[in-house]
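Figure S7 source data.
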Amino acid sequence: MPIFEKSSEKAVTRAILSEFSKDMERFADTEVLIVGGGPSGLLAARDLALKGVNVLILEKNNYLGGGFWVGGFFMNTITIRAPAHKVLDEIGIKYREFEKGLYVTPGPYACGKLIAAACEAGAGVLNMTMFDDVVLRENNRVAGAVINWSPVTFLPKAINCVDPIAIESKVVIDATGHDASVVRKLEDRGLIKTPGFGAMWIEKSEDAVVEQTGIAHPGLVVIGMAVSTTFGLPRMGPTFGSMLLSGRKGAEVALEMLKSE
Ligand code: 48F
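Tokens for the predicted 48F complex:
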């Protein structure tokens, strides 16, 4: 007796293809497109999906999580400062208090749980897909993203003429970390000027990132370390509380933008 139910190669191929095309049908016209699946993007996606928003995470790697897998210097411990540990409570991520107000948890464990939380809430994921350019509408409002498969960048120049496709979105969130890829694209087009992130100062940087999380340009919200690059804030190194609180604030700002449409 075989262990598994009978199937075939063609059924497996059709199952993958059919699900992909259903996903793309939904993604083509999202409400909120989050570029970058690091900790800030994942929490924003979870919060928005829990509110019933059609939200998509675009991620250039084949895995989500960004810098949240590793605490820093290839060491797994993630540090979180109060009050962001309350987000860990909500998601069911266990942690220990290292000293008053400073909490620790293993990166791979915390990252896995955060990814699961975003997916279980209903966020869509398009991985191995890179943000290439913005879609602009009247008065240069950001209204979506031009995207392409990440492996296209590895093709030899002679055969890399693969046209991208585009996704329309009511709100775009730049959650691409230090790169601030969406904001930088607006800068390339002369629509925005970014100072780039400043030198490290943990004590100042975490508050500043959360405070300055918000609308960077019509149609575009910036969260996480992309906020530092956009507004010239100090970098913060391996501590993640503000990434979670910035993601949460970005989701609230995006919800307000959807309401005022
Ligand atoms: O860098 P990342 O983790 O961003 P974050 O949410 O968190 C920053 C912290 O991890 C850490 C820190 C503070 O604690 O300094 O660095 O701000 O995740 C950014 C994600 O965006 C993806 C990238 O692969 C990563 O997963 N990304 C970057 N550029 C693109 C992109 C692009 N052009 N298209 C698609 N994804």
